Amino acid sequence: MRVKRFVGENVAETMGKVKRELGSEAVILQTRQFKEGGFLGFFGKMKVEITAAIEDRPATKRVSPASMEAYVAAARSYSGYMERETQEHQAMSAGVSGGVGISAGNRVLGGTPGMTADAGDSLLQQELRQMQSMLLQMNKQLTTLGQENVVWPGALQAWAERLRERGIQEPLVRRLLRQVQQSLSEPEREESEAVWANIQDSVRRMCAQTAVIQPGVQKPRIVALVGPTGVGKTTTIGKLAAGFSIVDKRKVALITADTYRVAAVEQLKTFGEIIGVPVDVVMTPSGLREALSQHADKELIFIDTAGRSPQHELHMSELRAFLDRAQADLTLLAMSATTNTADQIRVLNRFAPLATHLIFTKLDETMSPGNLLNVIDQTSLPVAYLTTGQNVPDDIEAATPARLTRYILGEGSAHA
Ligand SMILES: Nc1nc2c(ncn2[C@@H]2O[C@H](COP(=O)(O)OP(=O)(O)OP(=O)(O)O)[C@@H](O)[C@H]2O)c(=O)[nH]1
Ligand SMILES: [Mg+2]
Which of 167, 215, 260, 361 has its CB 3.0 to 4.6 Å from that of 232, i.e. a possible disulfide? Predict the structure, then answer.
């Protein structure tokens, strides 16, 4: 790793030096502002210092044909191993093999190498292993308790399957179908149109909380985007900024507090240049206040933040410090529709205290749009936007209850 210190008049100039010397993939390790010259701390000139680093080898490792071959060979032998193991398992459960341990080919897994399972295991070890497998079995049963799929009478069973296929979780499937049972008579429940309309109504009601950004009137409306890494925050800012500035002719400015990689700054700067809106780069929470005050004439200011793992407490507190100084009017939590529900709920729990609205991204990529409903059911935050592709500025839509319902349930016909 090559580490270097750069000094410049301001953030933009210093970042430029970093990029020229170390390239776009450089990582910013530390930034600070200091006064140079002057007398007794007065009349000095503010300077910016950035310490950046770059890996000696390329950040993204290209797969060479030779390593690709090795990979394929490894994958083949792995699948061979899986096959062998499955066969052994089948043989064992059919009572053909008398061993207790799990052996694959010449290898003995989970035991001492070179020792056959039944010869090496004492009675105590065998009992322990049996107890362990019983515990695992019990644990599995406990976790699925209450989540098993209910079998529904008549045509409702097909509807339940259809909702599950969309990725809607079992408790919600039950809620939706109980609603059908409560509102429709038994003969009506066999009519596809009636059931479909009832389910759509319920989902629309669950998705009633939506809201979009309104530009500020007297002063700029400050909108920050937060969320896990790679969900599409910067791209979404590009789409929103383009929509508001080019289509709605609003005065827009962009600020990025994501200075982790030079490439991240470049990404927003490129959007800014194409759209024709100013982009400020800030390194510290106090720098953010200063940048905001310079855009008092704007109607909208979007703040991009670095993607944060909800598990990383230090990063989360850094983000909180930025948001405290930003005093944003709206803080949009971007969540990818491709993330599974359990992880989405984790993200929601960590970020929701900082957020005022949700954005669902990558709707075009998910096969389980029911995830959206699972999340919406767990929060009172309104949904602001839905993004549906990589194209800036086109692939974004304002969230409405009808649109959300359409994505969640699909455009399909009433016939389950
Ligand atoms: N398919 C699809 N891709 C998207 C969408 N939005 C963003 N992307 C892509 O997702 C990738 C990451 O997007 P970014 O905007 O850089 O994500 P980010 O959240 O700013 O990432 P970090 O700043 O690294 O945390 C890029 O390749 C985008 O083109 C979307 O709605 N659909
Ligand atoms: Mg980003």
Answer: 361
Same domain membership, residue 291 and residue 170 = no
Cis before 228? omega within 30? no
Res 310: pLDDT: 79
The radius of gyration of the chain's CA atoms, rounded to the nearest angstrom, is 28
Residue 87, domain member (yes or no): no
Q: Between β-strands 252-256 and 300-304, what pairing exists: parallel, antiparallel or unpaired? A: parallel
pLDDT tens digits along 128-185: 777 777 666 665 555 444 556 778 888 899 999 999 999 999 999 999 999 999 999 9
Domain total for the chain? 3
In sequence order, the 6+-apart residues with CB closer than 8 A to the CB of 153 are none
- Identify whether residues 279 and 231 lie together within a single domain: yes
The verdict on 23 and 166 lying in the same domain is no
Distance CA 119, CA 36 (A): 77
Atom number in ligand 1 closest to CA 365: 1
* Domain match, 254 and 377 both: yes
Residue 385 alpha carbon to ligand 2 centre in Å? 17
φ, ψ at 350 (rounded to 5°): -80, -40
Side-chain-side CA neighbours of 156 within 13 Å: the count stands at: 24
Q: Which ligand is nearest to the CA of 307?
A: 1
Q: Please give all residues whose beta carbon lies within 6 A of any atom in ligand 1, as ranges.
A: 229-235, 258, 264, 306-307, 361-362, 364-365, 387-390, 395
User: Token digits for 380?
Assistant: 């009172």
pTM tops 0.85, yes or no: no
Query: Which structural domain, as residue segments, surrounds residue 28?
Result: 2-54
Whether residue 189 is found in the same domain as residue 307: no
Task: Decide: 383 and 344 in contact? Cβ < 8 Å.
Answer: no
Same domain? For 274 and 373 the reply is yes
Which residue CA neighbors atom 27 of ligand 1 most closely?
Answer: 390
Residue that wins the pLDDT comparison between 363 and 53: 363
Going by alpha carbons, the residue nearest to atom 6 of ligand 1 is 232
What CATH number does residue 354 fall under?
A: 3.40.50.300
- Check residue 136 and give its pLDDT: 66
Instruction: Please name the residues in contact with 211: beta carbons below 8 A apart, sequence gap of 6 or more.
Output: 357, 382, 383, 384
On whether residue 21 sits in a domain, the answer given is yes
